[in-house]
C-alpha cells in the first residue's frame, strides 16, 4: 500500500479504517471506547449462578474481560469488525425435518474462521501502522478475555438480543466478530438500541429451554455447549431434546426475524466441506479417528474431539427413525473402546428397542 505522506487527523483515520475494512471483506467496521457499561456486572451475575458450566475460562482473568485497559496497556480505542459467514440462505426458519441427517451449526461446516478473520484484521492493523508509525495495535479473535459482543454493541455493530447474540437490522446475526485494540484515540460510533421488542421467538424455540429469560442463557442446557464444550456424559433427560444436532445449534438464530436480512458471504473458506451440510448420521458415525482428523483438519469440528463427536452422533442416532442403517451403525459400536461412547450407544439402542 502506498504510504500516506502526512499523518491524518482522527476523523480521517476513522474513515480510512472503514474503507480498508470494506476492501478486506468485512461487512462492517465500528469503533468504540473502553467503557462497556454494565456488561461486567451482568457477566458476574451469570457466573455467580453457575451458568457457565465447565467453561472455567469464563471466570478467569478477573476484570480484564470488561476493562480493556487492563488487557492491553495504553489502549484508547477498539475497532470491531463483522465478517458474514452464511454461504446460502436458510430454506427454513427452523431445523428441517430430516432426523436421519447430522445437523452441524452453519459456522462450522467450512474452514475454521479464526485464521481467516485474524489474517484480515492483521492486515488492517498493518495498514494503520503504516499510516501512523509508533502506534500500538493488537488483534483478537477469540484469543483473549474480550467481551466481543459487548464491545461490538458499543461500536454500533448491533445490539445484544434476547438470545444473547449480536443482531444487526440489515445483517441479522450470522457473522463472526473480531477486535483490533489500538493506542490511537479515534472518534467513537454510537451504540445501537435494541430492536427485539416484544418478540420472544428465540426463547420459545430453544429445544432444551436453555434460556432462563430474555438475555440470559444457562449454558448447561444449551445444545452448543453440550455438543462442543462439555466433556462428560450428556444428561439423559436432555438427550431426546437434542434431536439430530451433533455440533452446535442454530435454532435461536434461524427463527429470529432479523435473519431474513442476513448477508451472504462469498468467502470460499466458509463453504461446506466433506458434505457436512447434509451427511447421514450413520455415515459420520462410521468415520475412524484417522478420517475424523483428516476431514476436520482446519475445521471448528476439531474442538469437540473424536470421542465427543461419536458421543454426539450416538445421541442423534438414538433420536433418528428406526432404520436398518441406524441400527447397524449403533450395533457396530456397541463394544467401542470408549466407555462414554458405549454408554450413549446403549442408550440409543434402548430407545429403538422400546
Structural descriptors:
iron-sulfur; 11% strand; QueG_DUF1730; 4Fe4S_Fe_S_CS; elongated; four-stranded antiparallel beta sheet; disordered N terminus; alpha+beta; two-stranded parallel ribbon; 4 iron, 4 sulfur cluster binding; 354 residues
Strands, total number = 10
Q: Output the helix-strand order.
A: HEHHEEHEHEEEHEEHHEHHHHHH
Largest beta sheet: strand ordering: 1-2-7-4
Helical content stands at 25-40%
- Low-pLDDT residue intervals, each spanning 5 or more residues: 1-5
How many alpha or pi helices?
14
Q: How many angstroms does the end-to-end distance come to?
A: 67 Å
Whole-number radius of gyration?
22 Å
Mean pLDDT: 94
* Beta fraction: 5-15%
What order do the helices and strands come in, and which of them pair?
Layout: H1 10-23, E1 28-32, H2 39-48, H3 68-71, E2 77-84, E3 103-104, H4 113-131, E4 137-140, H5 148-154, E5 159-160, E6 166-167, E7 175-182, H6 201-205, E8 211-213, E9 216-217, H7 223-229, H8 239-242, E10 245-247, H9 251-254, H10 281-285, H11 289-295, H12 306-319, H13 324-332, H14 339-353
Parallel strand pairs: 3-10
Antiparallel strand pairs: 1-2, 2-7, 4-7, 5-6, 8-9
Describe the structure.
With 354 residues, the chain is of the alpha+beta class. Among the domains are: 10-88 and 107-182, no CATH class; 280-354, no CATH class. The chain is 35% helix and 11% strand. It contains 14 helices and ten strands. The protein has a four-stranded antiparallel β-sheet, sandwiched between helices. The protein has a two-stranded parallel ribbon with strand order 3-10. Strands 5-6 form a two-stranded antiparallel sheet. Strand 5 and strand 6 (166-167) form a beta hairpin. The longest helix is centred in the middle third of the chain and has 19 residues, at 113-131. It is elongated and about 75 Å long. Residues 1-5 have low confidence and may be disordered.
Amino acid at each position: 500500500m502506498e504510504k500516506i505522506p502526512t499523518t491524518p487527523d482522527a476523523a480521517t483515520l476513522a474513515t480510512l479504517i472503514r474503507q480498508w475494512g470494506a476492501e478486506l471483506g468485512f461487512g462492517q467496521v465500528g469503533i468504540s471506547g473502553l467503557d462497556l457499561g454494565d456488561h461486567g456486572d451482568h457477566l458476574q451475575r451469570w457466573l455467580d449462578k453457575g451458568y457457565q458450566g465447565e467453561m472455567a475460562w469464563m471466570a478467569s482473568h478477573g476484570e480484564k474481560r470488561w476493562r480493556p485497559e487492563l488487557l492491553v496497556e495504553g489502549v484508547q480505542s477498539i475497532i470491531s469488525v463483522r465478517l458474514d459467514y452464511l454461504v446460502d440462505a436458510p430454506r427454513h426458519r427452523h431445523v428441517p425435518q430430516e432426523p436421519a441427517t447430522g445437523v452441524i451449526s452453519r459456522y462450522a461446516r467450512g474452514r475454521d474462521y479464526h485464521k481467516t478473520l485474524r489474517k484480515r484484521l492483521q492486515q488492517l492493523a498493518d495498514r494503520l501502522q503504516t499510516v501512523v508509525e509508533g502506534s500500538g495495535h493488537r488483534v483478537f479473535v477469540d484469543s483473549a478475555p474480550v467481551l466481543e459482543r459487548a464491545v461490538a454493541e458499543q461500536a454500533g455493530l448491533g445490539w445484544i438480543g434476547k438470545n444473547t447474540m449480536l443482531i444487526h437490522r440489515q445483517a441479522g446475526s450470522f457473522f463472526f466478530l473480531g477486535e483490533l485494540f489500538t493506542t490511537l484515540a479515534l472518534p467513537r460510533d454510537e451504540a445501537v438500541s435494541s430492536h427485539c421488542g416484544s418478540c420472544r421467538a428465540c426463547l420459545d424455540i430453544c429445544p432444551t429451554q436453555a434460556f432462563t429469560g430474555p438475555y440470559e442463557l444457562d449454558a448447561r442446557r444449551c445444545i452448543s455447549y453440550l455438543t462442543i464444550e462439555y466433556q462428560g456424559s450428556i444428561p439423559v433427560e436432555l438427550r431426546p431434546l437434542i434431536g439430530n444436532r451433533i455440533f452446535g445449534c442454530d435454532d435461536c438464530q434461524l427463527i429470529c426475524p432479523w435473519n431474513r436480512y442476513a448477508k451472504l458471504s462469498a468467502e470460499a473458506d466458509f463453504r461446506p466441506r466433506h458434505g457436512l451440510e447434509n451427511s447421514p448420521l450413520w455415515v459420520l458415525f462410521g468415520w475412524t479417528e484417522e478420517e475424523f482428523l483428516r476431514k476436520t483438519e482446519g475445521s471448528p469440528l476439531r474442538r469437540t474431539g473424536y470421542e465427543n463427536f461419536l458421543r454426539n452422533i450416538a445421541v442423534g442416532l438414538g433420536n433418528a427413525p428406526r432404520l436398518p442403517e441406524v441400527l447397524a451403525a449403533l450395533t457396530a459400536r456397541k463394544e467401542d473402546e470408549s466407555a462414554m461412547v458405549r454408554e450413549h450407544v446403549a442408550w440409543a439402542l434402548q430407545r429403538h428397542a422400546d
